[in-house]
Design goal:
- The structure is a single chain.
- By secondary structure, this protein is of the alpha/beta class.
- It is 30% helix and 17% strand.
- It is built from 15 helices and 22 strands.
- The strands form 6 sheets. Strands 3, 4, 5, 6, 7, 8, 19 and 20 form an 8-stranded mixed sheet that branches. Strands 9-18-10-11-14 form a 5-stranded parallel sheet, covered by helices on one side.
- It is globular, with a radius of gyration of 24 Å.
- Bound molecules: 3-acetylpyridine adenine dinucleotide (N01).
- Residues 67-68, 155, 161, 176, 194-200, 202, 219-220, 340, 343, 361, 390-393, 446, 505, 510 line the site of 3-acetylpyridine adenine dinucleotide.
Length: 546
């Protein structure tokens, strides 16, 4: 273990300035990393920019925010007692309950004493002589650590909109990912919302119920499936908990980390139209993300995909009373599920309300904002008191590239990843030794249950740290060869799917200037995990110990 050096910290208490591991981010990944590192006798500190823990679930407090993987599954699996003692109030917990859970975990495992809040890591520089990272924060602290775990989240750099005159708008502006703690009261106000991804689709029904008028500015309609959320009874919870072991086993062996939605091994195009209809209706009744596993060819065969897309379009047309509005809401031009599938409660029904207007930005783009609203190119002025931007994130790479991370030779990660992220397994990048990323680009990441995905990465990383030490070495780093191989593999697998056909954040296509490439490993978690384990079994094949 490192000898602790001491200096007065920002809170006036004595702080170690030399650690085994610095963890950046106190979300699900960062908290579990801290827990496991400590268990292994390693010294660690978590730095968190927010004034509370919870990561995504700390920042995204917009009305309607909730998970869309059942809470029984969207929760830590590493501790049987924890999962037995915690009661989820609903099938899909809302943001406040998820945040409560994370805070419970922090207290239960006594994590807070090694988490430093309101501290943003500004830089991390690798020193080649000592094989250590020097990490600095916005509080002027400097700390040295042998290893760095970037648990910075996939969706942690909100994307702003750039419309002429937006700075002149005099009303309140809120991004869904930076929502005020106390909430917002939209009563009596004319509200505009830009964006109809998962966040917008969850927020819109809630805002519509409160605001005097809501104008939805939609650029691309999304496919959304009812979540069918409901409170859980005592009896339902008891049954769920009794089958936890089996449920977790099935999750770990599934493509998405979800056991509640069975994977149908058949092909849509081998089924008759009647069989397909029955399958799709059954999935509709399950709700949410269940469609991803309804047939094996849906995300690789355009004709198969179209059968499901048509089913979903028909459902939208049935729900929305005004046929013109329904047509604006019907997604066309990209395959079903290749932009993140949404799970909603009363999303389409909201457009039947008198106080909701839908504006199609493809037909009538924004022209200019003024103090009191926005004009679209058809000359229409939309008067607004408040504006909500649900415009997403510079996903997977934004946060890491914006941080001053320097590896060998002083090269910045931002420079290295200018043409797109380069990783081995989505966990490490060549020439950045001892730096790990959880659920990073090139891993299954957001296409697998994020809690489990983070657990797996944390366990892989902590084992690697231990193995370096057991070998009497000081550093681990992927070779250029394995990184090149992995990046090509991620691209090749992605090219076999329909995901590349959509302008999604999975493709980096939502951020102007970002290189277009598939950012996720689409081979499924079981295959991914097998590869990661195989590499370890072969003595970290493709990785060098320094
Ligand atoms: O962001 P998004 P999000 N002018 O990028 C539009 C997770 N999540 O925050 O599609 C006009 O999906 C943009 O339009 P287009 C989940 O993984 C999960 O909603 O680019 N419009 C799009 O409609 C999700 O995928 C939950 O044409 C602009 C929207 O803004 C991820 O977070 C809940 C625009 C952005 O959609 C991100 O979701 C919430 C512009 N300049 C989030 N720029 C769960 O349920 C962007 N848009 C668990």
């Amino acid at each position: 273990m490192d000898k602790a050096l001491s200096s007065p910290g920002p809170m006036g208490r004595s702080e170690r300035t030399s650690l085994d591991v610095v963890v950046v981010g106190a979300g699900f990944a960062g908290l579990y990393a801290l827990h496991l590192l400590r268990k292994k006798g390693l010294s660690a500190r978590v730095y968190e920019a927010g004034d509370g823990i919870g990561g995504t679930w700390y920042w995204n407090r917009y009305p309607g925010a909730r998970c869309d993987i059942e809470s029984i599954e969207y929760s830590y699996s590493f501790d049987e007692q924890l999962q037995q003692e915690w009661d989820w109030p609903a099938r899909y917990a809302d943001q406040a309950d998820i945040l409560k859970y994370i805070n419970h975990v922090a207290d239960r495992f006594d994590l807070r004493r090694d988490i430093q809040l309101e501290t943003r890591v500004e830089s991390a520089h690798f020193d080649e002589k000592s094989s250590r990272w020097t990490v600095t924060t916005n509080r002027g602290e400097t700390v040295s650590a042998q290893f760095c775990i970037m648990a910075t989240g996939c969706l942690s750099t909100p994307k702003q909109v750039d419309v002429e005159g937006i700075g002149d708008f005099a009303g309140q502006c809120y991004h869904t990912a930076a929502w005020p703690r106390g909430g917002v009261d939209f009563s009596g106000r004319r509200v505009g919302i830009i964006g109809t991804g998962s966040s917008g689709i969850q927020a819109i029904p809630h805002i519509a119920k409160q605001a005097r008028h809501l104008t939805v500015f939609q650029r691309t309609p999304n496919f959304s499936i009812p979540a069918w959320n409901h409170p859980l009874t005592e009896e339902q919870r008891r049954i769920q908990k009794a089958e936890y072991a089996d449920l977790r086993r099935r999750e770990w062996n599934s493509i998405l980390g979800i056991s509640r939605f069975p994977a149908n091994p058949n092909r849509a195009l081998d089924a008759t139209p009647e069989e397909r209809e029955r399958e799709y209706e059954a999935r509709w009744a399950m709700g949410g993300l269940s469609f991803y596993t309804s047939y094996v060819d849906l995300l690789v065969d355009p004709a198969a995909n179209e059968t499901l897309a048509e089913f979903a379009r028909r459902k939208i047309r049935q729900k929305v009373k005004d046929p013109k509005v329904a047509e604006m809401l019907v997604p066309k031009g990209y395959p079903f599920g290749t932009k993140r599938l949404c799970a909603d409660t009363d999303y389409y029904e909201t457009y039947n309300r008198d106080n909701v207007t839908l504006v199609d930005l493809r037909a009538t783009p924004f022209q200019k904002f003024s103090a009191s609203g926005v004009t679209t190119q058809d000359g229409r002025f939309h008067e607004l008191d408040a504006l909500v931007t649900a415009t997403g994130f510079d996903a997977l790479t934004g946060t890491l590239c914006n941080m001053d991370i320097r590896g060998r030779g002083g090269e910045t990660l931002g420079d290295k990843w200018k043409g797109g992220p380069r990783t081995a397994l989505g966990i490490m990048s060549a020439r950045f030794p001892n730096m790990f990323v959880t659920t990073g680009p090139g891993s299954p990441s957001v296409l697998f249950n994020m809690i489990l995905g983070n657990e797996y990465h944390v366990e892989w990383i902590v084992r690697a740290i231990e193995d370096v030490r057991k070998a009497g070495r000081v550093a681990i780093e992927p070779t250029q060869a394995i990184e090149d191989f992995w990046c090509q593999h991620v691209t090749d697998v992605g090219n076999q799917t329909l995901f590349t056909q959509a302008d999604s954040w999975y493709m980096g296509a939502n951020v102007p200037g970002k290189p277009r490439q598939i950012l996720l490993y689409l081979g499924g978690f079981p295959a991914y995990k097998a590869t990661c384990e195989d590499i370890v079994a072969k003595g970290y094949e493709g990785f060098a110990f320094g």
